[in-house]
């Protein structure tokens, strides 16, 4: 009877692990960048005081005639260079965070320099 008990314990453990992993995805949070003001100038400080996790979703709301969102690396963020990043331009973009640094700028000329950029570190 002992071998059956161990097999059942393994099955239960695998099921519990699967449920925990699934719950981790369910607990992902959604954040609207810039809150009610949306993705606009001087939003650079918006992430301050917030805790982000990999899998959380950032929603960027803006007028696509005047702005966009470009996912860039740290260098692109620091230098306001959008040339190598992925560009989003729907006006209501939903972007899932990856673990570590996530960097976003507006690719319209001069906008990043006016602090239309955010850096988010996801745990």
From TrEMBL:
SUPFAM superfamilies with a match to the protein in the record: Cupredoxins
Signal peptide feature range: 1-28
GO cellular component, one term: plasma membrane
GO MF, any single term: metal ion binding
Pfam families assigned: Cu_bind_like
Alphabetic keyword roster: Copper, Disulfide bond, Metal-binding, Signal
CDD domains linked: Plantacyanin
Domain Phytocyanin: 29-123
Recorded superkingdom: Eukaryota
Gene3D superfamilies: Cupredoxins - blue copper proteins (2.60.40.420)
Protein name (Swiss-Prot/TrEMBL): Basic blue protein
Phylogenetic lineage: Eukaryota, Viridiplantae, Streptophyta, Embryophyta, Tracheophyta
């Amino acid at each position: 009877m002992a071998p059956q008990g161990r097999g059942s314990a393994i099955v239960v453990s695998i099921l519990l692990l699967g449920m925990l992993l699934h719950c981790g995805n369910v607990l992902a949070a959604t954040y609207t960048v810039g809150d009610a003001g949306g993705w606009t100038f001087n939003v650079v400080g918006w992430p301050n005081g917030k805790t982000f996790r990999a899998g959380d979703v950032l929603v960027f709301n803006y007028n696509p005639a005047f702005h966009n969102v470009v996912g860039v690396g740290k260098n692109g963020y620091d230098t306001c260079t959008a040339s190598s990043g992925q560009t989003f331009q729907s006006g209501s973009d939903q972007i899932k965070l990856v673990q570590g640094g996530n960097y976003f700028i507006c690719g319209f000329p001069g906008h990043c320099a006016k602090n239309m950029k955010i850096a988010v570190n996801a745990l």
